[in-house]
């Protein structure tokens, strides 16, 4: 199966390319592919694309490149993800999250490819006091959230829309690299305890996406680590998993952050799926397990380097 991946150089993109190649991202243990079979050798032919080589904001460029590649499935991972910067650069967020998604969708329709679009919990306001399910009304609070929701609406009804939450992986720099380093040098950290979501290991998300490439269901699905936690709880657990003390991490409120973030985040936006079972799929592993595996992968990489 020919699979074209936009944003292939990103943290999820690199893990996803590994999974489709039959590799285990970060060298950790294999994760369940949402209840489906492991990837067989030669099952997928990858067409990895990154924004540096594939101008997603140019309609003709997208149409020509996708037509020439002739994929059977397109997984659209590329996005403008700088949440705070988007508040000052709404045009940039619009171009990549909305316009580019529309171009990719049009090209997918033209060549008969199934589109899998990756979205976010930030399409919700997070004001219901419970986990969000696919049928809940969206109400984004930020430019980033609004453009990702508009990207969802730019997709054909036949497309798969996968919403995920608080994704972090081995590649690049993120808060779990910070937590692992703090565990080693004893640094004190402060994280907010009034933003609650669903921590998701990028490798688990990548493994889960295989099921959507194979099955090609239509509509919205929530795919994130199981359970919920605040940022304070998440980083405290990560520091302890890396051998540090939970006392290194203290809780603060969002109002205490200095400087204040430009974008408003949903206060309570864990994701829960009411649709995975309808297509024979199972949830991702518990967030504790995903975070612990990520910490181990970071430690292993740092030790090797």
What does the model show?
This protein has about 300 residues and is of the alpha/beta class. The protein has a single domain, classed as NAD(P)-binding Rossmann-like Domain (Rossmann fold, 3-Layer(aba) Sandwich). The protein has nine helices and twelve strands. A six-stranded parallel β-sheet has the order 2-1-3-4-5-10, sandwiched between helices. A two-stranded parallel ribbon has the order 6-9. Strand 4, helix 5 and strand 5 form a beta-alpha-beta unit. Helix 8 crosses helix 9. The mean pLDDT is about 95.
Biggest beta-sheet profile = 6 strands, parallel
Radius of gyration: 19 Å
Helical run tally: 9
Annotated CATH architecture: 3-Layer(aba) Sandwich
Beta-strand residue percentage:
5-15%
Care to count the β-strands?
12
Helical content (DSSP H or I, runs of 4+)? 25-40%
Domains, number: 1
* Order of strands, widest sheet: 2-1-3-4-5-10
Structural class: alpha/beta
CATH fold category name: Rossmann fold
**End-to-end CA span:** 35 Å
The whole-number mean of residue pLDDT values reads 94
